[in-house]
Amino acid sequence: MAQIEPNKSGFIGVFDSGIGGLSVLQALRAEMPQERFVYWADRGFAPYGERSDEFVIERSHFVTQQLLAQGSLKALVVACNTATAVAIESLRATFPNLAFIGVEPALKPALAQTQTLRVGVMGTQGTLSSLRFDKLLRSVLADAKPKTCEFVLQACKGLALAIEQQTEKSLEDTQALEDLCAQHVQCMGSFGLEPGQIDTLVLGCTHYVFVQDILRKLVGPDVNIISTGEAVAKQTKRLTTPTSSHTETTKVSNQIQLWTTGSLEALQLAASRWLDLPAHHCQLFQTPSAK
Ligand code: DGL
Fold first, then answer.
1. Residue-wise pLDDT tens digits, 9-64
2. Ligand 1 within 6 A of CB of 116
3. Pocket test residue of 59, 60, 207 for ligand 1, highest count of atoms within 8 A of CB
4. With 80 as the cut, is the pLDDT of residue 253 above it?
5. Residue percentage of the chain with pLDDT more than 90
6. Which of 70, 113, 198, 275 is deepest in the core (most CB within 10 A)?
7. CATH fit for domain 11-103+230-284, picks 3.10.310.10, 3.40.50.720, 3.40.50.1860, 3.30.70.1050
């Protein structure tokens, strides 16, 4: 399919089922400090990873329409592996004039880095059971030949929601979250640099970046942990930045607006914690059918 040329003016939309995509927004903000971003946390409808494809497609279309309604949307970053896996093709077909940038588990970079040829992949059930992920995995395995790399997939039930809840309660006590991470990590097997061990861990859900410190303690200091925020930010910049020099000097914090379909207070906590943004950047989108 021909690549869509995005508008070179206006704002960049970013969306996720909740706060996970803020990990991508962090990278976008660092890569494009003068850009204007509008972020949508569809928290009233999370977690996407444990919902049907139809549900995620419907929500992704709704969010796209809401962001389009806000003015000149020049590109939309689907900062959610699940929505990318399940809905991006339908979004591209329905909104052919809008440039979509998706995120997917970084299997290719993992293959390039692994020495033991065992890679752990953490993702949602929705992502790991999708046709799009299956296609990606097959193509990476085909590229790996004649080496045989094993990808150990772990559908991390409950983890994205637990990360949301941890932020919402602003709890210092992370024991429950640590226990859940430990359960999922143990299911994948042994981590380390010895033959037969997993030496590379792919974070295939944007939420998991926020438990990277916990995961690091569990897998040890030598394991590569790979996320996708930076790569997505670079690709977004390449697609959206005009070739002429950009001299705008407006403050970064004036350029970001965040919406949620969940709790405004929770988004404010997350925005302050992860992006150092004051509360007035956050707004509540009230929808009669929000659950
Ligand atoms: N952050 C999302 C992802 O990257 C979705 C998590 C969820 O809502 O289940 O898959």
1. 689 999 999 999 999 999 999 999 999 999 999 999 999 999 999 999 999 999 99
2. no
3. 207
4. no
5. 84
6. 198
7. 3.40.50.1860
